[in-house]
Design brief:
Length: about 425
């Protein structure tokens, strides 16, 4: 079988399992929200956001560097394993130090911003789980075993969603502590990936990292780290604005609407994660013309989802969620066009990353953060979640235009959204 066909088959299988996993994760978030209510779900959402920021800034982009170097056979596997485990230990050490400082200075935990008695162990368990997920997930992707990783995550998510469904329906299961439950779920996912990786790649152990490899890894990871940090702030700075003006309940309403909109990012995020190692391979790498199949497919796929997501969201708001979440539906209508266009940006950024053009991604992230911060500052004080939704559409659409222009300048290709029969 030709290498290009095998490559596309692997991408397809990896995408299917990732879609299943992401769909189940979305269902888990809905059920957690239904159990928690707006205020508790707002606190949980802030914990997730704060943990993600700490994960990005403590990780220094090392996971993306590992995938790019290992998948492209630019790094000895034993050195790569040492790199990922050491970076994970550093992240846990930094978390412990930051948690201690937060408790000593503010008498509040770092992530949930609450009392140590209630939140310290759940958020510690959650952050350890995140590190395991990130590090061993990157090892699966670097070794072209993404299908296996997503199979494992999908199975765990299915079991957890089933457990929550029994609780929501009052079928003999009661959940009194959503924080601890969600933290335990994340930890089990991360631990399962770590165990499964060592079972599928037996005998791998740490090795010496050569100086030139270390320099190459950090040169790549530093730009990724800066870019990811800026882009994440662009994604989530609206949470802090809303928390300031409307409190945790306002964050809960907006966060759930945001999760519905992010359904348009499920496919592009999956494809981006799978395409980077496919484009970076030393032998049999995907060509730019082969890559073009995916943006064109994405634009058509998301065009189908564009009306379906708000309709599905309205039904869920009306028949599953507490009535206090319903104001988020109008915000969803205003933010969803921006999420549609930005799906294309996620794929183009993956292409620039695989090509080593990281400065393009950095510039795009700076543009996005600047636009969304200014728009949030102007719109959220007056219109709250609706203002944040409008800011999203404004910033994401203009950022996508920048990436399209840069891609055209680099390749001469401008037919990103046209369907072709050969696709």
């Amino acid at each position: 079988m030709p290498k290009t066909i095998c490559l596309k088959a692997d991408l397809f299988k990896g995408s299917i399992y990732r879609i299943i996993f992401m769909g189940l994760s979305f269902l888990v978030s809905l059920l957690i929200a239904a159990i928690s209510g707006t205020a508790i779900f707002g606190s949980l959402s802030l914990m997730i956001v704060n943990a993600a920021i700490l994960l990005i800034f403590s990780g220094l982009g090392t996971d993306a560097a590992l995938v790019w170097h290992w998948a492209g056979e630019k790094l000895n596997p034993r050195a790569g394993y040492s790199f990922v485990t050491l970076s994970g230990l550093v992240q846990l050490l930094l978390f412990g130090m930051a948690e201690w400082i937060s408790l000593q200075v503010w008498d509040k935990t770092l992530l949930a911003r609450g009392s140590a008695q209630t939140f310290l162990w759940p958020e510690t368990l959650y952050f350890v789980g995140l590190v395991l997920l990130e590090k061993w997930g990157s090892l699966f992707y670097a070794t072209h075993k993404a299908v296996r990783a997503n199979q494992i995550l999908a199975i765990i998510s299915f079991v957890f969603a089933l457990f929550l469904a029994f609780s929501v329906r009052g079928l003999g299961i009661r959940v009194d502590d959503p924080f601890s439950l969600f933290a335990g779920f994340t930890f089990i996912q991360g631990l399962s990936l770590m165990v499964a990786f060592h079972l599928s790649v037996p005998g791998i152990r740490p090795g010496w990292i050569a100086g030139k490899d270390l320099r190459s890894l950090f040169q790549f990871s530093f730009l990724v780290f800066i870019t990811n940090g800026i882009q994440f702030l662009a994604y989530r700075i609206d949470y802090w604005f809303i928390d300031h003006y409307q409190g945790e309940a306002g964050v809960g309403v907006y966060a759930q609407a945001n999760r519905f909109a992010q359904l348009l990012w499920v496919v592009p995020n999956i494809l981006a994660a799978l395409l980077i190692p496919a484009l970076s391979k030393r032998e049999g790498a995907m060509t730019t013309s082969g890559f073009m199949t995916y943006p064109r497919f994405l634009m058509r796929w998301n065009a189908i989802l564009l009306p379906l997501v708000p309709l599905t969201a309205w039904l869920i708001y009306k028949y599953l969620m507490p009535a206090s979440f319903m104001p988020g539906w109008e915000a969803l209508l205003w933010m969803i066009p921006g999420y549609y266009f930005f799906g294309l940006t996620l794929l183009l950024a993956a292409w620039f990353s695989a090509m080593g053009q990281l400065k393009v991604n950095l510039t795009g992230s700076l543009i996005c953060l600047t636009l969304i911060t200014l728009a949030d500052a102007l719109l959220i004080p007056r219109w709250g979640a609706l203002g944040a939704a409008l800011a999203n559409t404004f910033a994401y659409s203009l950022t996508t235009l920048y990436f399209m222009l840069r891609f055209k300048a680099r390749t001469g290709i401008d037919h990103l959204s046209f369907w072709r029969s050969k696709d």
